[in-house]
Amino acid sequence: MQSLPAPIADLMLKNHWFLATAESCTGGMIAAACTDLAGSSNWFERGFVTYSNHAKTQMLGVDAALIAAHGAVSEPVVRAMAAGALAHSQAQVAIAVTGVAGPGGGSAEKPVGLVWLGFALPGPEQTAIYSECRQFAGDRAAVRAATVEYALQRLVELIKPPRTPPG
Description:
single chain, alpha/beta, 5 strands
């Protein structure tokens, strides 16, 4: 997985951007993958591991009412996590993830393997936040590993020139 952050590093350095992560279900694995790459201090600003709802509120400024209304594993929360990662760091780009890694904790509406991803990217006039939902198969380790891999690959797609908003 060490090669996954290399294209991100190149793009971040080229654009003079820093990356922050806000992670729940991956528990810091995205930040770890990024900082496994030598020289990452030149483009990786910080990582927030906000596993509990309280941590999301305290560290990222996610409104507790938003979590109460939609649940921690939801589009509004992951978007707020991405925005909060930027607001509480010096980064210009952020990845946020929240999901149900399993083996327990799933429901009919939010089954094990359901992950929301958020990406905050610099725009011409303001930051743009993109979000998407994915369903990953496998056990807890597989869901977490797939989330890390997908998040890093998707970030490259989103920041690689020419940048076009996701459809």
